[in-house]
Amino acid sequence: MTFRKIIAVSALLAFASLGAQAQDKKAPGSGPNPYTDCGIGAALFKETNWAAVSSNVIWDLGITALISATNSPETCQGKSVKAAIFIKDTYETLAEEAAKGQGEHLTAVLNIMECPASTHAAAIQSVRTAMGTAVAQPGYASQPRLDKTVQFYQAVHAASKSCSV
Predict the structure, then answer these.
(1) In whole angstroms, what is the distance from residue 159 CA to residue 137 CA?
(2) Does the model's pTM come out above 0.70?
(3) Which of 113, 123, 124, 150 could serve as 160's disulfide partner, Cβ 3.0–4.6 Å?
């Protein structure tokens, strides 16, 4: 898809989402708007709808945001968004702590995801395993920082699913 097409689709989705919000902020039972409330776009640009839409569309044509809204709408708000922002802001420190297997930022992100302290060791091991696999992939080092933060978020999110056990 060309850059112009991506921009055109982004603009169309932004205007559509703004129009929907003008009609009704969120009718009961309507669920999150995948382009403004979900995905990495919502995590990065929670106050700027057009930027959230653009980011989601540019990232993967909005597929991740749509999947989030459909399969797990609870990830479109609350702790998941807070964790994504925290990871974006502290990625380098988190990556270093994950490699070590401990650290206050790792503990903080697990606390944001509401993982009880008794599950932290297993969750950290899960994150370490996932990130070890990611880092071993050819080209990982040359990936943009945002791509790395998304992978780290996905590792934390997957690890947090077992925290409530």
Answers:
(1) 20
(2) no
(3) 113
Look at residues 45, 83, 157 and name the one whose alpha carbon lies nearest to residue 17.
Answer: 45
| Residues 145/147/150/155 CA torsion (nearest 10 deg) | -100
Residues 6+ apart with CB under 8 A from 96: 103
Per-residue pLDDT of the chain in tens (165 residues, 90 and over written 9):
555 554 444 444 444 444 444 333 444 445 667 667 777 777 777 777 777 777 777 766 666 666 666 666 666 666 777 787 788 889 999 999 999 999 999 999 999 999 999 999 999 999 999 999 999 999 999 998 888 988 898 899 899 988 865
Q: Compute CA 100 distance to the chain's CA centroid, rounded to the nearest angstrom.
A: 23
- Would you say 25 and 17 are in contact if contact means Cβ atoms under 8 Å apart? no
Return the residue matching tokens 């709808």.
49
